[in-house]
Design a protein that fits this description.
The protein has two helices and no strands. The chain is mainly α. The protein has a domain of 25 residues. The chain starts with a helix and ends with a helix.
Amino acid sequence: VEDEGGALLGRLQGALRGGAAAASPSRVANSIKGYLTNKVGSLQLRDT
């Protein structure tokens, strides 16, 4: 059972890596930038 779980986990990680590689770096950067901007904006709103 552990071997099957390990193989499944390996396939999942491989799929995740493939998906990350398939995503365009600019799209990833934009989503990260938007996420950070939202975080910073909400923090500033909370402080005032």
